[in-house]
Design goal:
The C terminus is likely disordered. The radius of gyration is 32 Å and the shape is extended. The chain is α+β, with helices and mostly antiparallel strands and 227 residues long. The chain is built from eight helices and seven strands, in the order αααββββαβββαααα. The strands form two sheets. It has a four-stranded antiparallel β-sheet with strand order 1-5-6-7. It has three domains: 47 residues; 79 residues, no CATH class; 43 residues.
Length: 227
């Protein structure tokens, strides 16, 4: 094992350890800890409410594949599916026997990425959902959730895509600022007119005595040019 591989394994192990402690705290310690206000734990309160009103908002999932599809992330970009090479996305090629068979006769309706494993893609056809995987998914299929998440976050290809989007947003923001500065320079001569108008209004409001019976009752008096 090289020093780079050892560093990667150490970082992955530390990340998995942190995730394990965090999950135990959120899903074991917090639900079982009694609250000072009610003296009941959140889990006991939840069980009581479920017994009275039932489980509201619960979605029934028939299989593990349905759960993975429901929790996957939709792909908004237009991705081309090649019947001979599969689907190319984020510098990865997603293929499977079922995918290639469906691509010969049908076009994909929807594509979704697995929320944990970036090497798994779910493709929807008019007849059914089809799973497509990369060549690396065979080597990472036996890893746990924490290891898969760590690999997804440390993947240079995914980070390069995010960097491109971040640079694009930065360029768009810079262009908007430049346009705003040009617009401000084009109307800079109006600032002196506005300041002069404000000074005249201030002097008029100070010199006019609104307690005088001859003064108009409307404070926003509009002067007319008619004699």
């Amino acid at each position: 094992m090289t020093a780079r591989q050892k560093s990667y394994a150490t970082a992955c192990h530390r990340y998995a350890t942190i995730v394990d402690h965090l999950e135990k705290y959120l899903f074991e310690d917090v639900p079982a800890t009694p609250l000072p206000s009610t003296r009941f734990s959140p889990q006991e309160r939840q069980d009581e409410l479920v017994g009275l009103y039932g489980a509201a908002g619960v979605v029934t999932v028939n299989s593990r594949e349905d759960f993975l599809i429901a929790t996957s992330v939709p792909i908004d970009r237009d991705v081309t599916a090649d019947p001979r090479r599969g689907i190319r996305y984020l510098q990865r090629t997603f293929v499977s026997a079922e995918l290639m068979q469906h691509l010969r006769f049908q076009k994909p309706i929807e594509m979704r990425m697995d929320c944990v494993d970036p090497n798994r893609m779910y493709v929807r056809f008019p007849s059914r959902w089809v799973l497509a995987m990369t060549a690396r998914s065979l080597g990472t299929g036996g890893r746990g959730t924490a290891e898969a998440l760590f690999e997804a976050m440390s993947d240079s290809r995914l980070r390069s895509e995010v960097a491109k989007l971040r640079d694009q947003r930065r360029r768009e923001r810079t262009e908007r600022i430049a346009e705003a500065n040009l617009a401000a320079k084009a109307s800079s001569h109006l600032v002196y007119m506005l300041e002069a108008a404000n000074d005249e209004e201030t002097k008029e409001s100070v010199s006019r005595n609104w307690t005088d019976p001859s003064a108009p009752l409307d404070p926003f008096f509009i002067e007319s040019e008619e004699p």
